[in-house]
Amino acid sequence: MSLIALVLKFIIQLRFPDNVSIAEITKRRYGEATLRVFRICERTALKYHKAIADTDYLKRCRDADLVPIFLRFKLSNPRLAGSNEARKARRKLLDKEIREKDKRISILSNSLSLQLNELKQLVRTVDFIKYRLIIDTSVASSGDIWYSTHQRKFVSLQSSSRAEAGLLDPESVITNISDYDLSKIEKLALANGLKFHLPPRKLKSGSYLANFELLNFDLSKSRFTGNDEDEVYFREKLSEIAYSSYFNYNSTRSSLMNIPRDQYRALMNLSKNKNIVIMCPDKGSGVVVMNRVDYVTKLEDILNDTSKFKVSKDQDLYSISRKVERKVRKFLLDHLKKPGLISEEQYKRLYPNGSHIGVLYGLPKVHKDGVPMRPICSAVGTSTYELGKYVASIIRPAALSSLGTDLNSTFQFVNQIREQDLSSLYMVSFDVRSLFTNVPLTKTIDICLKRLYHGDPDIKPSIPEDTLKRLLQLCVCENAFVFGGGVCQRVDGVAMG
């Protein structure tokens, strides 16, 4: 580093001390208006680079002759989906989307240039350099996430494209560690993967018709239907479509069937086999077939660790759910809503009602000897599910390293080392056995609070420290779960989910 660069770095550190937030420094030095200009520059820079990343992804798909998910529109005749005409139409739409993205990039580029020039006129040169560094760091951090997401989508598109072309080898998808011998037809059916959806045998009237009600409500709010007379006509036609489609639904109709009938029957027979469990592996995609006895035994072995789990004294599922609901409701009202820390809308969203306790299941680690299980607790619909998402958004900054040592995925890691010279280095990987179940809850909560409230002031939450501590305890310590008909509780550690 040159002497000029070292001096410049020293001056920037003096003008922007670590213990004072960038927002506070900017408001004190230049005023609220300049801070707004800086934030606008930051947002525009993110939009600009996101548009570039999205466009690069679409062009990569086009070069590989892959069709992104948003262009896989459904046709009334499924046989036409693979026709040359359909492929040409998708290709034209993809080209059109890329051209639109290029136009947006050009517009955002001009806007960003003007906004940066405005910011440059409002602040000193040395401060402008610091603002640019902050913007570039934000873009780089988000860029890693965008790259990982696009890479994951691209790999998924490649797999689905091979499956559609009939090039997918079932043996490369299915790991059968059960005593059940899969037939050729069963293997072909399972090779579609666990994300492959069959048309439901029967529509659920409540959830199906409720979607039409929501559509009518949203359109009525926006006055999309015009005058009152048009609104009445629209509502009647929408009701007619909803009920006619519901009562005329037939899952066996050829236009709805997206799989050969012999494979459909094979899947139906597999679903009735109570001696096996079919699931995805812990790492990557694929299908694992496992003996139900082995599946249950391995999870019970994990639950028998009394230092991590215990059998709940109360085995009444309803009683347990209501007890946790009351705790969460009281805390939300007394410590968040009344002090004005959350809005009425947030309070309603976080307020638990009609919840149930979690459900434990496991994913097999087929890449390890003995195929151990990773326990996962499905918390969807529990009393603390929405609260957990709210708390996660607050503590997320505590998980990010200022040194850039945190990773979101393997794709991000590969992207970071791509330009590095690794010829004289060795890669070392450390594996932690049962990582999540061995997380010390109390210590982890204390570390989160220390980083949030006694570290970087830019990430300090607006709610009091003791309130957040109790929220964390509610989310990770108050959740029971059910497995095999019995209710258990965690003593220490956490489960994925």
List keywords for this structure.
three-stranded mixed sheet; five-stranded mixed sheet; 8 strands; 497 residues
Layout of helices and strands:
Elements: H1 3-15, H2 22-30, H3 32-63, H4 84-122, H5 125-164, H6 170-173, E1 174-176, H7 184-190, H8 205-221, H9 228-247, H10 261-272, E2 276-279, E3 287-291, H11 292-303, E4 309-311, H12 317-337, H13 344-350, E5 358-364, E6 373-378, H14 385-399, H15 410-417, H16 441-453, H17 465-477, E7 480-483, E8 486-490
Parallel strand pairs: 1-3, 5-7
Antiparallel strand pairs: 2-3, 4-8, 5-6, 7-8
Assembly category: single chain
- Average per-residue pLDDT, rounded, comes to 83
Output the number of helix runs: 17
Rg (CA only): 27 Å
Q: What portion of residues belong to β-strands?
A: 5-15%
Order of the strands making up the biggest sheet: 4-8-7-5-6
What would you call the structural class? alpha/beta
Order of helices and strands: HHHHHHEHHHHEEHEHHEEHHHHEE
Task: For the record, give the distance between the C-alpha atoms at the N and C termini, rounded to a whole number.
Answer: 46 Å
Basic shape? globular
**Which percent bin holds the helix content?**
55-70%
Q: Which stretches are low in confidence, meaning pLDDT under 50 for 5 or more residues running?
A: none
The total of beta strands comes to 8
Largest sheet: 5 strands, mixed
Kindly describe this structure:
By secondary structure, the chain is of the alpha/beta class. The longest helix has 40 residues, at 125-164. The protein has 17 helices and eight strands. Strands 4-8-7-5-6 form a five-stranded mixed sheet, covered by helices on one side. It starts with a helix and ends in a 7-residue tail after the last strand. A hairpin with a 7-residue loop joins strand 2 and strand 3 (287-291). The chain has helices at residues 3-15, 22-30, 32-63, 84-122, 125-164, 170-173, 184-190, 205-221, 228-247, 261-272, 292-303, 317-337, 344-350, 385-399, 410-417, 441-453, 465-477, and strands at residues 174-176, 276-279, 287-291, 309-311, 358-364, 373-378, 480-483, 486-490.
